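Continuing the series of single-chain predictions for the mutant panel. This is the parent chain; the variants come on the following pages.
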Amino acid sequence: MIRRIVGIETEFGITSVSARGSRALGADEVARFLFRPIVERSRSSNVFLANGSRLYLDVGSHPEYATAECDGLRQLIAYDKAGERIVDDLALEAERMLAEQSILAKVFIFKNNTDSSGHSYGCHENYLVDRTTTLRDIAVELLPFLVSRQLICGAGKILTEPNGDVRYCFSQRAEHMWDGVSSATTRSRPMINTRDEPHADSKKFRRMHVIVGDSNMIEASTMLKVASTRLVLELLESGVSMSHLAIANPVRAIREISRDLNGTAEIALADGTTTNALALQREFLSAVKTYFDGGGCERPDREDYAEMIELWERALDAVESGDYSSIATEIDWAAKLQLIKAYQAKGGLELGDPKLAQVDLTYHDVRPGRGIVSLLEARGKAAKIVTDEEVEAARIEAPATTRAKLRGKFIAAAEAAGAEFTVDWVHLKAGAGTSTASNTVALLDPFVQSDERVDNLIATFSSVP
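Parent structure:
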């Protein structure tokens, strides 16, 4: 599947800091203020937006934003960044509403994966696959790539071990994965979730739900994460087998890999041999380059993929050499580590110093002009993929090349008319009450961009008083 629907779901961390004399706020209360405008407008904290994306309040007081269906790399980056802006706008409005109640507080939104109490929240990737694909078999072969992928797109983390030791790791999520491939969700946190929920025609499609990834701040890291995974998935779908790389214990391996910045920690394979993360990634990269250069995957954005393959190789070279300067503007873990080392050198700080923990956290602050990555972007020290204008457009309009265009068009028309409506990933329903054939459209093909039935449904809004 060369043209593939992809989406990213991001759970954000939230907190607030009250000025002296103002009462402190818990995360639950901050979340209620954050979503008050949404609830007042939609009578729900779970809504779809006119840009085709979904915004809702997840368990644990985590705002979650799921991008609209995207079929291009740059397009996906724009909609992912739009989510940051949308949630931060809610934070700004929450600060205003709090001030009206004489509560002076700053609301912070963090695009990270762990809090100070050790809780983890996710960044999930969704890749559409053909129904004829044996999803579990593909997932098992994809697993060694995902376990070692943190070398090229981990977000980085200062980790304090139970025994008090402090170290810098590649990944924030590695410590919180408890299974390799599973259909479970809350009971077991797998790296790949195989629950059969395609959000499309179940006779034609399935959805590969990848849970293992970190939330990335630098756009190039997000793009590399998705591009490399898409290419490996295509490689496996084309019939190339990587089963010889099956890992004996993926949960143990992902933790060991995260802790070893050299990429050489010994990893036991299922066949009784051993390897390491660098070797795993090199083998996947070599297979992808052969597939890509063989002309088997012509696509409109081929140049973007070529750039990501080059960055993939450069990231592995940097890990192997121990010199991260060549990737410090593009790969999150390397950029963060460079900052931490600079603070250490300037202040003579140990890695466990609270000041460095603050640096680690502020790196993930999404507020422009306050979060570290936005400051790095302004100085040309964090690679941007899309323009501010593209992100602004993605906040307002749905992707023009997928089903999301129809959803966004329908929502915008309903809101402009003040009409009742209900939507999910597949269905559009005009009016209140029971769904019927005359007021509901099911969009089972995520690749469609036009549908006369949707136009007819929108036409009914003209009669709304």
